[in-house]
Each structure stands twice: as structure tokens, then as C-alpha cells.
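hiii, so i know i said id send this last week but things got crazy w the move. better late than never?? heres the sequnce for the chain we talked about at the cafe, plus the structure i predicted for it. fair warning i was half asleep when i ran it
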Amino acid sequence: MAIAPSKLGRLVRQEGESDDTLIQRLRELGLVKPDVSNADLVAVFEKARVEHAALSDEMRSFNSPHERVRVFLAPYLNAKGQKWAAPLDSLTIPDE
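okay and structure toks below
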């Protein structure tokens, strides 16, 4: 089953080449809880990458690493971040 796209997943895809840049954008946009450490966020990114890499080629075709990061970020998101993470529905949220 494919992971549906989200606004947060798109942000991760755009900014995910650098963990530092992605963390900066998540914080600038006010999507993560302020008490979450950068180390926790980097651990989430790495966990998502490792899990994605472990998928079979067939399963990988139904998933994307950036949406996987979005799923793993769930416990660290504030209310705005949760809205941005909502599959499909978040795609209509205007940039704030």
C-alpha cells in the first residue's frame, strides 16, 4: 500500500538533501514542537532512511522516503505540523 502524499512530505522532498536545512525549515515554518532536539530529528530522518532502504524493490515502488520521514516525525509535530502531515488533505493548505 502506498503512502499518500502530504504537504510535509513535499517539504521533506525539497529540503531533505541536508538534515540541517530540513531542521531549519521545519523550525522556521513552526511545524515541530520547540522542545524537540535537533538530535531527535536527525534520528528520525535516519530511522526513516534505514527502513526505506530495507524495503524490497517492489515495496519501495509504493513508498517514498520523504513521506516515510513525515510518518516518523508524527510524535514531534505540533498542531500546525500535524495539519501539514495529513495525507492528501494537507495539499490544499496555503503556505503560511
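btw The mean pLDDT is 88. thought thatd interest u
miss u guys!!
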